[in-house]
Amino acid sequence: MVFSRGFRGKRREGPPDRVPPGQYLTDDFPVLSAGPTPHTPLDEWTFTIQGGAEPVTWTWDEFRALPSETPTVDIHCVTRWSKLDTVWEGVSVDTLLEAVEHDASYAVAFCDGGYTTNLPLEDLTGGKAWVAYSYDGDDLDPEHGGPARLLVPHLYFWKSAKWVRGLSLRDEDEPGFWESNGYHLRGDPWLEQRYWGD
Amino acid sequence: MAGAAVLGRLTWLGAEVAAVVPETPRVRTLELYAPGWLGHRAGQHLDLRLTAEDGYQAQRSYSIASAPGDSLTLTVERLDDGEVSPYLVDEAREGDMVELRGPIGGYFVWDGNETEPVLLVAGGSGVVPLMAMARHRSRIGSTAPMRLLFSSRTLEDVIYREELERLAAEGDGFEVVHTLTREQPPGWTGYSRRIDPELLAEVAFPAHERPRVYVCGSTRFVDAAADGLIELGYEPAWIRTERFGATGS
């Protein structure tokens, strides 16, 4: 083992069953984005699921009228911060997919600003993923992905695509933005799937 | 290209601190001797891991400061409530060991194959990955015009000040424009305020030149710069950003 002389550390590791390996706890909510923050007016905003029998689209008002949930979840960023007990409100992806006839196994989330990320539908269904429009009781800030972002807390947070505008259903897994730029195809923090080959 | 083409697992490499160079009161450069390091692209970062005597470990990501092909250097700013950065800035000395994994990131990179102008916009230690690009440009003799707009608090907080002056003095198309937001020395002729749309309009390449843009700094800084450039007619797709918050690292 390689030791760093004189290093003690602050040991903000947190409860081991809640903080994955290589992560540390923060109370902040850091922002990471590869480009400028988009600002889409709500009257132009839609959410679309394509790749099924027919594309299905919701306007903002229609989307907000869907039944919502308020999950409290831990989130883990590949840049190593984890944040516990974050409170969101949004629509379960299960609810959205009920409106779509399909036999796909994968999805690519697409976003304002051109960002994409890929996920197996297994990771988006079964009460594990939401399209969230509220954080901590307030509308979601643009810098954190507002008006709406994907929320897939059991995977590294780059999968929780900001400014999400829809899902494109696929038969095969297709790398998204970070997944084409060195990051892991699935991104399970408990397996430390950070980069290609992890 | 290293980085984009690393398909195997990135493994941890032992690296020895070969030299430490103070840059500003809060910032230090570490030169690392890392046998087995496969190189990097300008703008990429790496993961650095420290292990205490009892086996406790902490890891963080740091941008690489050196040009591809030069000795590997990191430039690190001390975050007062940080865990890894105080060790790297205050404690580590020649001969100490750390571990590295990388390089990482295939988007916030400039390889120097293109000739269109490059606008670099740095807030504080956000200059580090941009410095790798400026050094790379000089090293490969690129003729792409490159302009660095660099916002610091005070003159003594300006990282790489002398080297930037040297690079600009070569007169080969690299320019640096400073703004000091908190305190200016007597006779200061640079800008004296935070980056705003008017300042960007004076410094940035005109939109019709379709520059490539790299912005690195705090979230607030990056959003101010990116939004201002979009006001000038820049397309969002030209603007690549890297942000650091108060992440406690």
Uncertain runs of chain B:
1-6
Number of domains of chain A: 1
Shape of chain B: globular
Q: How many domain modules of chain B?
A: 2
| Quaternary | heterodimer
Query: Largest interface, and how many residues on either side?
Result: A-B, 41 and 52 residues
CATH uppermost class of the largest domain in chain B: Alpha Beta
Mean pLDDT figure of chain A = 96
* Backbone CA Rg of chain B: 18 Å
Fraction of residues in helix of chain A: under 10%
Q: What's the helical proportion of residues of chain B?
A: 10-25%
What is CATH's topology name of chain A? Sulfite Oxidase, Chain A, domain 2
User: How many angstroms does the end-to-end distance of chain B come to?
Assistant: 29 Å
Q: How many H/I helices of chain A?
A: 3
Quote the beta fraction of chain A.
Answer: 25-35%
Q: Please tell me the overall pLDDT of chain B.
A: 94
Structural class of chain A: mainly beta
General description of the model:
The complex is a heterodimer of chains A (198) and B (249). Chain A is mostly beta strands and 198 residues long. Chain A has a single domain, classed as Alpha-Beta Complex (Sulfite Oxidase, Chain A, domain 2). Chain A is built from 3 helices and 11 strands. In chain A, the strands form 2 sheets. In chain A, strands 1, 4, 5, 8, 9 and 10 form a 6-stranded mixed beta sheet that branches. The radius of gyration of chain A is 17 Å and the shape is globular. Chain A starts with 23 loop residues before the first strand and ends in a 28-residue tail after the last strand. Chain B folds into 2 domains: 92 residues, Translation factors (Elongation Factor Tu (Ef-tu), domain 3); 127 residues, Nucleotide-binding domain of ferredoxin-NADP reductase (FNR) module (Rossmann fold, 3-Layer(aba) Sandwich), CATH 3.40.50.80. In chain B, helix 4 packs across helix 5. Chain B has 249 residues and is an alpha/beta fold. Chain B is globular. Classes of the chains: A mainly beta (198), B alpha/beta (249). At the A-B interface, loops of A face strand 4, strand 6, helix 5 and strand 11 of B.
